[in-house]
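Researcher: Here's a chain I'd like modeled. Treat it as a single chain, no partners, no ligands.
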Amino acid sequence: MTSGEKQFVMGIGGVFFKCKDRAALVEWYRKHFGINDDGYGATFPFKGDEAKGRPGYSVWSPFEQDSDYFSPSTKGFMINFRIRDLVEFVELLRSEGVDIVGEVEEYDYGRFAWVMDPEGTKIELWEPLGETPDG
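Model: Modeled as a single isolated chain. Structure tokens:
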């Protein structure tokens, strides 16, 4: 089975990027775009899986220039994809030779995994809470 045979990616979970002056940039986006940062970024809700009665959301999040969260990538941005069946997807990617960074991590808001694309961009994979096969 190749990753193209089952739809694992549900959409963009967020855009994360490094900036020179996080406080000033956050204020600029607040002033001009009305984006309110909660210390981790801002969330943008949208209608999610109505059958399960919960909204989805995407995240906008600036990081300090010296953040190592994007490591081992040296790029100034990282894309987060919303994923269904994360563990299965990571195993499939591993079998296809994709560079997996670290192990799957689980938090009260979802599961995460990271991969590197062929150009050295770190991609974050996020299975939101409640999207997991076991609930």
